């Protein structure tokens, strides 16, 4: 089973999108006080969006990668939809390319639950054994702790601090920013801020009203088509965990994989 590799791929997706955000957010020193977005420059809006994202205790983000070549790989994640916080708690799912299935994940403290669907099992477990494992664990959660190698990799994607660190680590000269006309996305008034670097266009949509927060960042160009959407700033991650009757200890999975 390639769970560790998939977690690494998911981490790469997170890192790439954090880097995209950094094109607009990093290297912008705090210079503005909260005020109406009409009165702020592109750089001032980006600065406040950066600070609000770096200060967030929790956030719900959806990362999507539709770049060239990604969707044809069943072991490469094309999206992650996660509510996560700075304590490493999370709830959501990851979707793989080329019908590679999805896997739901819940993490509270050091405990981790993972529920792959049938397509995921068939992709990750070689040959006909994939169907057998899928049937054995159908509609059941794999439960363990972050001490287990099979679960730790997945759980590592749950830490908001890591995402914030990637964004905050940006350095160098920030690209020139263009502030577009006020528009609306998902019922929220926003200003689009656009920057370009190395042939790639990055656009960040920041709420027009204070507090100014990034709700969407897109990266387009040279075979790249990625985005990350943000919502539910500082809203607690759901604490509901799968019931014991629907969970199987990860050691059972390890036994099955060793017998393949």
Separation of the first and last Cα atoms: 10 Å
Q: What's the tally of helices?
A: 7
Shape descriptor reads elongated
Q: Radius of gyration from the CA trace?
A: 20 Å
Can you give the mean pLDDT?
82
Structural class: alpha+beta
Topology pattern, helix = H, strand = E: HHEEEEEHHEHHEEEEEEEH
What level of helicity do the residues show?
A: 25-40%
Name the beta content range.
25-35%
Number of DSSP-assigned strands: 13
Low-confidence stretches: 26-35
Biggest sheet layout: 13 strands, mixed
What keyword list fits this structure?
260 residues; alpha+beta; 13-stranded mixed β-sheet; 7 helices
Write the SSE topology:
Blueprint: H1 3-25, H2 42-55, E1 58-65, E2 77-85, E3 90-96, E4 102-108, E5 111-116, H3 118-124, H4 129-136, E6 141-145, H5 149-155, H6 160-168, E7 178-179, E8 183-185, E9 188-197, E10 200-207, E11 214-221, E12 224-231, E13 247-249, H7 250-258
Parallel strand pairs: 6-13
Antiparallel strand pairs: 1-2, 1-12, 2-3, 3-4, 4-5, 5-6, 7-9, 8-9, 9-10, 10-11, 11-12
Briefly summarize what is shown:
It is elongated, with a radius of gyration of 20 Å.
Describe the protein's architecture and organization.
With 260 residues, this protein is α+β, with helices and mostly antiparallel strands. 30% of the residues lie in helices and 32% in strands. The protein has seven helices and 13 strands. Strands 1, 2, 3, 4, 5, 6, 7, 8, 9, 10, 11, 12 and 13 form a 13-stranded mixed beta sheet that branches. A hairpin with a 5-residue loop joins β3 and β4. About 4% of the residues have low confidence.
């Amino acid at each position: 089973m390639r769970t560790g590799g998939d977690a690494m791929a998911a981490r790469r997706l997170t890192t790439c999108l954090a880097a995209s955000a950094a094109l607009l957010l990093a290297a912008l020193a705090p210079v503005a006080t909260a005020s109406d977005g009409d009165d702020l420059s592109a750089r001032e809006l980006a600065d406040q969006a950066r600070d609000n994202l770096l200060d967030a205790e929790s956030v719900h983000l959806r990362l999507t990668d539709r770049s060239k070549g990604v969707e044809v790989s069943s072991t490469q994640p094309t999206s992650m939809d996660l509510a996560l916080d700075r304590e490493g708690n999370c709830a959501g799912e990851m979707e793989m390319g080329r019908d590679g299935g999805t896997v739901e994940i819940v993490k509270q403290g050091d405990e981790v639950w993972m529920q792959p669907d049938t397509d995921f099992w068939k992709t990750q477990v070689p040959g006909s054994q994939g169907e057998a494992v899928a049937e054995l664990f159908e509609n059941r959660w794999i439960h363990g702790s972050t001490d287990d190698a099979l679960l730790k990799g997945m759980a590592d994607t749950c830490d908001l601090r890591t995402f914030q660190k990637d964004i905050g680590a940006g350095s160098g000269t920030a690209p020139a920013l263009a502030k577009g006309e006020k528009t609306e996305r998902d019922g929220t008034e926003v200003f689009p801020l656009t920057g370009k670097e190395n042939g790639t266009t990055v656009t960040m949509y920041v709420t027009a009203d204070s507090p100014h927060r990034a709700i969407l960042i897109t990266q387009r160009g040279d075979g790249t088509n990625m985005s990350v959407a943000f919502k539910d700033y500082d809203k607690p991650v759901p604490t509901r965990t799968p019931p014991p009757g629907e969970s199987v200890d990860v050691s059972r999975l390890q036994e099955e994989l060793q017998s393949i």
